[in-house]
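Field reference: sequence -> structure
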Amino acid sequence: MTDNTWLNRWDERYSSEEFAYGTEPNNYLREQLSKLKPGKILFPAEGEGRNAVFAATQGWQVSAFDISANGRNKALQLAEKQQIAIDYQVGELSTLNYQKGQFDAIALIYAHFPGDIKSSIHQMLNQYLREGGFIIFEAFSKNHLEYIAKNEKVGGPKDVESLFSIEEIKTDFPNYDIIELAETEIELSEGLFHNGTGSVIRFVGQKLA
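Structure field:
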């Protein structure tokens, strides 16, 4: 069940006219999508749609979801501006009707779910990816708290349970050929809320079975 505080936080963040994380796609996503043949892709916790809209401009058939209706509204505005279509649903993953093996790729870009549900969401998403499909993942690492302490503008959750470790990714996605899995320091410049040096986990995996 969605915690109303959690929902209100994201609805509030996406309520202003300005885009919280900008309208340009995430750099890592852009780089990884360029290596793949376009197909069907899912964007969980997609917020204001910058990554989903970019993927659609690259020829992908895009599905996305988030708990925030404000996020969806801005994503659809952005899609209209780019003259492309995306399927964007509002709700929790367990209530949405995706099919087993429906997607060729799933992009988890700063998809920080509450600590007590994040692994179960990853396991649910795994079912919706076809065999041979790809996960593209970038999110803040557990060590990122040190970076927030130095510079709040870099953004990211402030509770360690919502952050990620390499070990957690290996546990959550055991049935993958790991193409890349690393913790790395990067410079972020994404809209209002991701600015400065941060520590992230990056993962690209291909589903074995």
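Note: DSSP finds seven helices and seven strands in the chain.
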